[in-house]
Amino acid sequence: MNRHYIYILTIMLTATLLAACSLEPADSEPPVAPTQTDDRIVVLCQGLWGLDNSTLSYIDGGTVTNGWFKKNNPGMHLGDTGNDILQVNDTLIAISVNWSNIIQYIYPDGRAIAATEDIPNNRRLATDRRGYLYCTSYADNGYVAKIDIRTKQIVDTCHVGYEPEGVAYYDGRLFVANTGGYGGQAGHKYESTVSVVDAATMCEIRRIDTGCINLFGDMTCCGQFLCINSAGDSYDVASKTVVMNMADEEFRVFDFPATYSCAYGNRFYLIGSSFSYVTGAYTLTTHTIGLPSLDVADGLASYAAAAPEILKMQAPYGIFISPYSAHLYVTDARGYATNGRLYEFSPTGELIGRYPLEGINPGKLLFLKK
Amino acid sequence: MILLCSSLHTLWAQKSLINYEDSLFSIDDVVCVGERPHYLTPSQTISGPTLQNLSTTSVADALKYFSGVQIKDFGGLGGLKTVNVRSLGSQHVGVYLDGIRITNAQNGQVDLGRYSLSNMESVSLYNANKNERLQSATEYASAATVYMQTRKPDRTTLTAEYGTGSFGLNKVKGYFSLKDRLFVDAEYQHTDGNYKFRFRSLSEDTIGKRHNSDIRFYRLEAAGFYKGLATHVYYYNSERGLPGPVIRRLTDQWDSTDRQWDQNFFVQSSYKKLWENFGLRTNLKYSFDYLHYLQDPSTNAAAIYCNNHYTQQSVYASVAGSYNMKYLSLTASTDITWSDLNTDVYKSSYVYRLDSKSLLSAILSYRGLEVNLAMLYTHIQDHTRGNASPLRKLTPMFLASYKSGPWVVRAFNKRIFRAPTLNDLYYTLVGSTDLKPEYTTQWDAGVDYRGRHLHFAIDGYYNEIEDKIVAIPMKCQFRWSMVNFGMVKSLGLSLSGGYSNEWGKFSLATNANYTCQSDRDYSMPSDPEYKHYVPYSPLHSGSLIVDLGYDSYSLCTSFLYTGERFALISNNADDLLGDWYTVDLKLNKRFRLKNGMVVQATVECNNLTDSRHEVVKRYPMPGRNWKATVKFEL
Lengths: 370, 634
Hints:
heterodimer, A: 370 residues, mainly beta, B: mainly beta, 22-stranded antiparallel β-barrel, five-stranded mixed beta sheet, 5 helices, 59% strand
């Protein structure tokens, strides 16, 4: 039996030695060439559906603070799949947290204020700057909710098309892009309409048929113009861009996608990412649309030099231009399950910073006022 | 000269855990197979009384006690449970019932929560594969294999059982057997499953109760044995709630109401015949699997309507022949599997797959030295709209061992792939027909000691997984999105051992294991994730089973430990899941009544220390829970 004890002892010794090593979280990736820009940015990372890991990162003068919401609010976390972030007024920021079914309000310094429940499966936000917040929801066959930001209570709702995504406010009316994106499993067709809703009465005035299906993706306002992406069906129907003049409700269709869009000056800047299940390939494009002429140009105008860098990204996930510095920012979701990155380009399109984020799927940026 | 059981190394392991009351050396084991023992690959077995004494209900629970095994468990009786060995991935683990593989052409995952231990003789795990003569080609085709061995009845008996426990558990079971000929086993279970949970960290303190985690199922099984022929019929029918992940909510009014209905049926038959130098084995199987998933906005306003049905069938046939000489045994085997999948998922089309495998294997035995060389040829062809191109692969493997007295020194190298599943290839908007098969290469060297009371094994191993096809759950629990990891390298050390003995009325059987394994991603040197830890791979894990017997009492204590692991490849501090351990107890007492009837009363306590942990991120496991069972035996 003595020999057995020796074996056991050897085993235990080895085990002890091995136990000395343990898992350590990875070091943060160092930012590439952090620059002294004055932009103060809140980055909303969606996280992964079901992992409850939506996060905020805060960038100030080129310094990244990850886990910003948690740091400012001990004992709290943002929730599951943050979809949209919007500055409602000088002191209030709203975040729609999709699968947590809440709209979380924070001060611009990151402290949480309150949250509105009761908008299940919420999507995107808009405000009239007169004390009301509007939020689209996939629930209940698709509706828009109107929230009084003083009470944070829902005051009215209006049914629109199936799976409404983007929402914009212009001159007393809401413009809602309907997708019908779950048609395949829920037994309805893709939507091709924009619902026009009277914001005061919350009644649908009309539906404008754009002839383009699945109005899913970013929706960007620039004055009276609205840029809407039509994602197609990923099989036979290609993705397109619809630009609508909200003043006269006329629209024009372009033969390229505007999956990610932003506006600066008198121009829409677009990154199109289209996927064809037939060919199995993603195609990335960049375009600008001049306003009010609706002139189209390939590339990114004065930021043209940024385009090759953007097309090299694994998965561009959002395009933004700072209204304060005119710097161009593009997020990269990379593997969709890995930490994302934020790229910063100068007004001439030169890469001046790459910020590693500790967050997954950075979908939205909010530029804070100085 | 030596005519021994189907696998003596299994038997050795069994021997150390044996209670002589229920001896495993039944005549059948010794006579019918006629092959010599092989020690070529590491193997672990839990069998006989220890298997029955464990406080477990399903095969998945029993496998947790094996070295190098990671179980993905979504919590509760109804939560999906799949097994992963040495981080190779659950689709690389072949699960075999009496030597015939349980398959799932759709996603390659076998829910081991559905297989009951009550009629099992043993559950074994073999790294690489089992090494016998007369194995089917399919048995060589996975990187790790789990064998469930049905118990052939050794007496004529009728038993009835009733159990109740925490979370509204009720179960009834009936079992009838005719010695050496047949058994019929029926079971019904229901549990509300709505257990309490708590998440506590710097960023939350969430207390709540699981909703919609009920399950009810019934299972009917029968098996017949006649000479070399064995036939097994199985039917499982269940309805369960899918409670979904626990995420930040202000109230629980939006808790998941997703439901799932399953039916699984198979009938399988195998025939084995041995002559002096020649052996023949044939297998035949038909299986039918049905799954219905419903997400209904009328019960949960946040949900989007989703109502999908999946039907799978498969027919499998194999024949193996072996020719045995004094120092050499040659086996040739060929298999064919036809499987199909029919779903009403948007834009999906009917698909069927023909998968044929052929094997040539030579086992050389000279004194203590054994060498196995095997060559496997696989041909897979799918038939559907826009199907992937056919897959043709030839894969060799090498195994060697040297045995001297109770000591065995062994080594193996095995390179094998798993073909992309039908979901990987064709699932609407997720699948990709360009997927390459995922290859694993394993190197292992180890030492075994198998004495009369003590046995232990030490193995060092190195694995590589190339072109890894990784699925991450999205939206629904069984709906996945593909993430390509490229390459993973694993370096590991596993220690396992056991001791058993008897002193008069006292008996003791113990089994312990410890695994240290480092799995890192080597996909893209330019990525920050390069050399990061692979999700859900703990560095340390271990288990201990102590089974004490005194007269008609038995007390089995089992301990399970899993170290910290990351939930995501980015390895952020937020993604680190805490380590946990659980202690389970099971106390059993047998009474013999005057009329000859035997009554068995059992009390179980699972998770004695009320550990609050999650195996899969945001899927909490139940806390302390109790179960009481009474069993009547005629």
